[in-house]
Amino acid sequence: MSESTGAESAPSADGFWEFSLRIYGQPAVPPACLALQDEGGADVNVVLFLLYLADCGRRLDAGSIAALDAAVRPWRETVVRALREVRRQLRSDIGAFAASTTRALRDRVKGAELAAEKLQQHALATLYPPHSCGLAASSSGEAAADHLACYAALCPAPWPEDALHTLIDAWANDARARGVLT
User: Fold this and answer.
1) Mean per-residue pLDDT for 106-110?
2) 40, 85, 98, 132: most buried by Cβ count inside 10 Å?
3) CA separation, residue 85 to residues 55, 102, 116 (Å)
């Protein structure tokens, strides 16, 4: 997928995908997101979407964040996590099947996992249109912090603070560079 040009029109599902690629593409972000996911039980797509909404100047309340998470939970649990688990299992030998012989299959599963995550992102942006959901935020930084605090409270385990700070800093630096951090 191509990178964002910075001259984005109205927020859209594709805009969210481009935003996600830009944020996730920063060096320290992938391990931070994996820590939030694996240690804190966060759905990285939900985390990124909440940052995207703040980036778009929108603020959701705790009930809306819970509803947003509930809307994508069945897909996450049934499809995304299942594909992730298969991909991770294929890193190791499985019986008579050496990991080196299943590499091509693992790459196809990884592609399917990425496609499933992109579908989830499209669903989030469709169900919660970034230009009109929630309320207008007086501060994108405060909205981002509130969104993540509300979502963290829904997750099964505490989020690693260093991973959370890494992600917030990456978003804030990106937003500041684009002139949208208020």
Assistant:
1) 98
2) 40
3) 31, 15, 13
